Amino acid sequence: MQQTILAISGKPGLYKLVSRGKNNLIVEALDETHKRIPAFATDRITSLADIAMFTETDDVPLMDVLESMKTLEGGKTASINEKKASSQELHDYFSKVLPEWDQDRVQNSHIKKLINWYNILIKAGITDFKEEMSPTEGDNVDDRK
Hints:
Blueprint: E1 5-8, E2 15-20, E3 24-29, E4 36-40, E5 45-47, E6 52-53, E7 60-61, H1 62-73, H2 87-97, H3 108-123
Antiparallel strand pairs: 1-2, 1-5, 2-3, 3-4, 6-7
């Protein structure tokens, strides 16, 4: 799951890798539209497994942060509305999720994006943030070049 869920710069939400073309990837939106679009090499595409949050000590992988949010929320969507929450409410909420977060480098927009991504994943039924899938499990992506 971690390698096949993607964030694409300039496009809202999260995407699941469906297939690989000659010069692009075919991705499907994880929202209720399930719209499939091509993602090209010129798009900045990042796997969720490659993202980490800044802390006062070492950076924490995004999957660990999402798992912490799932534990805090009991596996349900976030109890805070990221669009309407004040700066202080976002900071208080994120301090419960990741107590040692770096308040100088993590911006409110980062917290809002994290909450949005968490909600997208929960609504899509993706809740195993720490579980690694075997290479043959889950999708039909051909890894040959």
